[in-house]
Amino acid sequence: MLGMIGANVVEDIADIVHLDEFLERKDEATVVDTRPPEMREAQGRIDGDENVPLGELREWAADANPDGEVLTYCKIGKSSYMATRVLAEYGITARSLTGGYYRYEYAATDDGERVEYVRPTHIFDTQK
User: What CATH number has the domain bearing residue 47?
Assistant: First the structure.
């Protein structure tokens, strides 16, 4: 699967967005997290996004009328890549965040500050 994704990126069949551009564009775009709600809750999320698990994406796309670009993400980029392919079938322009949420979470901005994200919560979390 990852080999196919790589080939599609090289052949310019798949649209991807790297973190720096994602950070510049996310406030004007519709940001869609394609992970299941349980995974999203456990791992964290990007503030202001919509949660549309991959299995529900066709229904969402049929009813959606996003203004402009859709940026998708998941844990590492695999299901968000598949989401861009599904959305293209509905005429929706979408790009997948390379590296997914993990890349976003551990990124640093130019001034060395951590990117703001919604911190994951789970039963072992001791910080309030």
Answer: 3.40.250.10
